[in-house]
Structures are given as C-alpha cells and as structure tokens.
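Input sequence (459 aa), recorded before submission:
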Amino acid sequence: MTEADRKYYLLDTNVLLHEPLALYSFQEHNVVIPMTVLEELDNIKDRQKDVSRDARVAIRSLETLFQDATSEQITQGVKIEHKGIKLGGVISIFADHHASFIKEAFSEDEPDNRIINAALYLQQSKAPAKVVLVTKDINMRLKAKGAGLKYVEDYRTDQLIDDVHLLSKGYQEVEGLFWDNIKECETFNRGEDTFHQLASDKITDPFPNQYIVDEKHEFVGKVTDHFKGGVELLDIGYDRLMGQQAWGVTPKNIYQGMAINALLDPLVDMVILTGPAGCGKTLLAIAAALELVIEQKQYDKIIVTRNTPDVAENIGFLPGTEEEKMMPWLASVTDTLEVLHKNDNCSASSVNYIMDKANIQFKSVNFMRGRSIQNSFVLLDECQNLTASQLKTIITRCGEGTKIVCSGNLAQIDSNYLTPVTSGLTYIVEKFKHFEGSANVYLNGVMRSRLAEFAEEHL
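Predicted structure, token format:
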C-alpha cells in the first residue's frame, strides 16, 4: 500500500472509552490521536465511575506503543505492534491544543471543536490521502460534516450486523408444514427423547440450540448438532413445549415456550432474552430462577444485577447497604415477585419469604468485577445499555455451575453512544450463537396488557 492509499483515522475520546483497544483495529492505516483526547482521558481516569477503567486501559495501551519513542517519533508516528505482530499501520499524537497553524472552523475552545479543527487541518495538509474522523457522538459527526470534513464515521469494528432486523432471533419459522418439505430423515431415540437427522439444506444456517417451528406450530424442534451436509434436531413437540411450567408460570405463546425451555435446560449455561417491553423477559427469568433454586435445587442462590449510568455513578448517594441502594433500580424484579405471589393470603410475607428462601441478592455491576460466582443463577437485566467489553467483564465472572440470563430491549437504549447495532446485547447474540452452551430467544408479542401492546405498536 502506497502512502497516498493509507487513510488517516483521527479518533475521538468516546471511541477509546467505548473500546479501549480500538488503536489496534485499523490494520495498515494511520491512527492519529489529538492531544485534546489525551487531556480528556486524563480528566476521566480518576473519576469514581465505571468508564474511568476504560480510560486507564486506553492510556496504558498508548503508553505501550510509545514507551521507547522519542518526541519526534511520537509526532511523526511509530509502528503499531500488537502482541508481537506488526499490523503495518502508524500511530501518532497530534498537538492540536492552541495550534496557531490550524485554521479554525469553530472559534469556541471546546474539546470537540478542537478535534474537528485538527481533522480539517489534516484533511488539507495530507491531501490526497483520506482523513477520517471517527466518533460515536452523532452531533459531532453532524458538526464535522457541516464544517467541511469529507469523511466522518462511527466506530464500527465491533458492529457485527448492519441492521438490527438482521439480528438472530434464536429460531426459524419454516413455511407450511415441516414434514411436507422433508423427503429423507433418520429418526432415533436417546432415552425418552426423539431425534431426527436430515439434510441441512432444509434449514438456513443452523446453529446450536436454535429452535425450528413451522407455520402451523405442529412441529417444534431444537438443533442439537450440525455436521457437514446434515443437522440433528431434538423433537420437542408443540404440546410438550406449551405444557412446560416454571414456578407455576406457563407460556402464553410459542416464543415464551421456547424461552422457558432454554431457561430450564441444564445444558445451557447462558440464555439471552430479547424482545419488546412487556413480552415477559424478566417474568420468565425470575420464574425459572425460583424453579431451579427452590424446587429443583440446581443452584444455591439468585444474583440480580443491572447497569445504567445512574447506577454506576449515583449508587453511593442512596441510603442503606448495597442491596438497599440497588432496590430502586431493580424494582422490576420485586414487581415480578409480587405478580407471581399475588394470589397468596399475604403476598408481602410470601415475597419476603421467597427472597430469603431463594437467597436473592441484588448486586451493583461496580462490585461484580474480580468476583468468581459459583453455583448461582445470575440475571443481568437491561443489558442493552452495556458495551461488549462491559458484558465480557460480567460474563467472565461466572464459574462452575452458574447459569446467566442476559435480557434487554434494543428499542430502549439510554446510553449516549450506543445504538441497536453497536449495543453489547447485539454483540453477544451474534458472538454466542454458535456456542453450544448458549441459547437466544426473541420474545415476539406483548403479553403485559392490551394497553402495553397498543402502546408498543403505535407509539
């Protein structure tokens, strides 16, 4: 690649906070870090916030790349090397702070404006090479384009799909009746279960624990093995699927049936539940947790955690212990427990008894790092607001005998820099779909009430 073909990627601060190792994602191209970005990282690294850890990781990565470089080399650029492998690109630090040679498009002394001004200067000085500003801030992208910057992009390296509608739902719906399309099939039994082996061309891109249903809902199967030219299905059956129950909860539609089947499957270590508000994600997860902990005694306790910016930053200002601080943010779980025991003589006493019996613990994500969670049922709620690196931190806490359920609604993202296609929830759905120890179900349909259903469809 000639020097003219190399692109210059100017990184904004939020890119390094979203993915601290983004420096290594641009292969043979040039990476430019404005001095303003270093200043913002320095201001963030000492805050008592979860994002401060990402800032420190990004700073350490930069220090590793520049540790043996002179000041001239830092300005001109040093080779990017990761784990002993030279990627072919060059990284440099650009002194944009009060640089008199930069023609300012914005006169205000704001960090975003200084970065845009630096990008405009590089666009002129490095022509005909392409200079690309990479930022996750939508407003900054609009400002940069309006100021005359030709190339402005979002950070898409961790974006596995282009449209959220392409996200795997965890099941396939076959047109017509399933057996009408099958000419050859080998059927056999293992214990009480019936399995079918058939040609894989009948099922598009099968993956482990994917559910197969037909239009009439007369056949329901689950992919248990996928080999060259063929696929093995566990025959579940519609009546058997809909007859399952967890803590007295029975599925109201086939999608909830698939979710309960995955939640109660002892061979599945991680279940990912997605879907609109009111589809039953939290209800099914809590019901399955109580069934597995109290009735079947497969796990010792239930750990419920959730992450939002408010939880990460303001938990210390709430009164009480860690669990009492978390209660306002995890009211959805206590609401669910009340619904499950609303017909008891004294529902409040029942909820308190069950919380003690099931050893339900409410934990902040801030205190999950460094733990090793054994023999537990972990519910990670509202994880559409987490990045891929944050989800990795939590999932890697799970030890032997632990099952984790990740639930979220991609239509309710509160994070400033996440979209449905860049959310950590989307990332793990795609990354884990070929892992035989995980299952993913998109819960189609709103079951909360007709009011909630109408609001979800028309508002």
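Checked by second reader. The first strand starts at residue 8 and ends at 11.
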